[in-house]
Amino acid sequence: MNAYAMKQYQTVNVHAQVTEANPHRLIQMLLEGGLQRIAQARGALQHGNIALKGELIGKAMGIVGGLRDGLNLEKGGEMAANLDNLYAYMMQRLSMANLKNDPAILDEVASLLREVKEGWDAISA
Asked: Is 125 in contact with 25 (CB distance < 8 Å)?
């Protein structure tokens, strides 16, 4: 299967998953996507592909921003406020990783996002 066909298949597969997903699963998918983009950005950085690294960090920041925008600060209380602060910190750190080409910062954000994902995964839908 050529690369274009594989990409098209993956796109259709993701769209099908999103269409069928409940809100809980959608958040899981966003968290997974953020972790994937950070890992891909780290790989691009290691291979010296700075343009791709920047693009992937931008996508990760978009995902984290989307997670942040989805918080209900009125109903979510202290937990939502804490997540809001954490997501803001992650976005700041991703921006710094991009500016400094620092894989350690990418690892830090991935670790934080992984912790959020583990907590979210522990919640039953």
From this structure: yes
The DSSP letter of residue 48 is: T
Q: Report how far residue 64's alpha carbon sits from residue 20's, in angstroms, rounded to the nearest whole number.
A: 22
Q: Of all residues in the chain, what percent carry a pLDDT higher than 90?
A: 78
Judge contact between 24 and 125, C-beta under 8 A.
yes
Tens digits of residue pLDDT in 49-103: 999 999 999 999 999 999 999 999 999 999 999 999 999 999 999 999 999 999 9
With CA atoms as reference, report the closest residue to 113 among 34, 27, 25: 34
Helix (DSSP H) and strand (DSSP E) numbers for the chain: 5, 0
Output the pLDDT for position 8: 53
CA distance 112 to 114: 5
Region of residue 77 (left: phi > 0; alpha: psi -120 to 50; beta: else)? left
